[in-house]
Amino acid sequence: MSAAAKPIPAFDAEAARADFAVLSRPVHGKRLAYLDSGASAQKPRQVLDAMRVFTETEYANVHRGVHYLSGAATDRYEAARRTVQKFLNAASEDEIVFTKGGTEAINLVAYSYLAPLIQPGDEIVLSVMEHHSNIVPWHFLRERQGAVLRWVDVRDDGSLDVEAVEAAITDKTRLVAITHMSNVLGTVTPLAEIVARAHARGVPVLADGCQGAVHESVDVQALDIDFYAVTGHKLYGPTGIGALYAKKAHLKAMRPFNGGGEMIREVTRARITYADPPARFEAGTPPIIETVGLAAALDYLSAFDRAAVRAHEHDLLTYAREALRELGWARVIGDAPGKGAILSFEAQGMHAHDLATILDREGVAVRAGHHCAQVLMERFGVASTTRASFALYNTRADVDALLAGLARAREILAP
Amino acid sequence: MDNSLRELYQEVILDHSRHPRHFGTLEDATHKAEGYNPLCGDRVTVTLKLDGDGRVADIKFAGKGCAISQASASLMTDLLAGKTQDQAERMMQGFLHLVKGEPANDLPEDARAHLEVMGGLSEFPMRVKCATLAWHTYKNAVEEGAQ
Questions:
Q1: How far is A249 from chain B (nearest CA, A)?
Q2: Cβ separation of A351 and B65 shorter than 8 Å?
Q3: Minimum Cα–Cα distance from A361: chain B residue
Q4: Which residues contact B93 (CB under 8 A, 6 or more apart)?
Q5: What ipTM did this prediction achieve?
Q6: CATH tag for A48-302 (out of 3.40.640.10, 3.50.50.60, 3.60.15.10, 3.90.1150.10)
Q7: Is the dihedral of CA A86, A90, A91, A95 positive or negative?
Q8: Tens digits of residue pLDDT in A350-376
Q9: Which residues does chain B have within 8 Å of residue A36's beta carbon, measured at their own beta carbons?
Q10: Nearest by CB to B5, which of A361, A368, A415?
């Protein structure tokens, strides 16, 4: 018997929009339609206020002093770790390592976990739709240690076939590194199934969650995933802060990354011993204020019904996608079932950069280029695409501005 | 309609981008270079032939990219054919000034008349690199691209 689907509450995007001051500033004299949140999201005043108030009332270095402010700052810093833990539903706060972003989180896994295990000929499985941040660290291991990269193709609609992932796994596979959600196609990958198949072969899985954590609810325990990387600035938080979730057993086995203060237990002239995770991987003074900002951003996002936000973003995606189809001269790239709110397209006779320049003059901010996914561009035979990415603060008015801008661009550019 | 957009994408530019002059590859090139803008993926390959006096006897470009990069490459090859390297260097410096909205007094009159259509770029600093890609590639070909 199937239970009736829980009704999804309405989401008030206009009210949310009011939390983001930048969205009310005009650009080139036009209403700003910010459709580049996939590159970086804007920050609500709740995040900015949290960072300012913390700095004005509780700031000091963490894990060092015995004075009042140091204790207060340490409490806030560790509370932020628990906020991330809860956001990802990790079993323990000790499984959350703060990093400066998603890129550093993945590089940490490459350097501290995988590099010591790699023998020449060992394989890393990854998809062709990875962002460069989930490609280049593995290329390092290819260049330096003779690892072999095994690429999994996507279907023409941008979806990922679990069977193809499984088929790429061999006895030499040491890691499957896969995005949770493509930053170009919007494809949401079947992570739980991928993890199950990989684990059946004894292979751990890393997910690049930089887009996925923004648009999907993440439960690392339900996924049983080994590593999950997130970045703060796409989650409506500040730049310079991100996090790596890693299973405790992995973290315990991993060698240190950066060396310095905070990550040691004892240093003598002759030897050092290291702190336990996660401190082992957090050398030096961390971005304390940004960490507080990240926690505020996660609190902000979590206060909404995530399913309602998703439905709202999906409405914008569908609305925009149908409108582009009707134009007849725009080709959408990436149409996987259940995809997230990212829309990449090519417009006939118009290069993405020319298009983006004209859209910009209409107040519409989009991304144009290869989106740090050159392998994927090659797969689809395009040099660049135009990408509109939707966030909780976007409305149909933003899509209408995009469509009006596209019509203008065609007036100017098309033969 | 935004006038600066109209000026940027004026008919001459669009015509050059749609029907680029000197498009292709010189089989008997003496110099060659490839230019690539990793930010946007624009690519241009410049092949040219220097004669005994160091003049650009012939020049061609091939590539893929936005209207600005293609038009600029087309305008450049139009202009550089028959010029000495010194003349070309002066034109390049003048052109760089022009697209950045700086005084381009060093631009010879004939070149100015030819390149002025790119002047609208000074309103679009994010796009200047699109226009200069071909010129930097030319320079690279002459300096380091001997075949």
A1: 40
A2: yes
A3: B2
A4: B106
A5: 0.89
A6: 3.40.640.10
A7: negative
A8: 999 999 999 999 999 999 988 888 899
A9: none
A10: A361
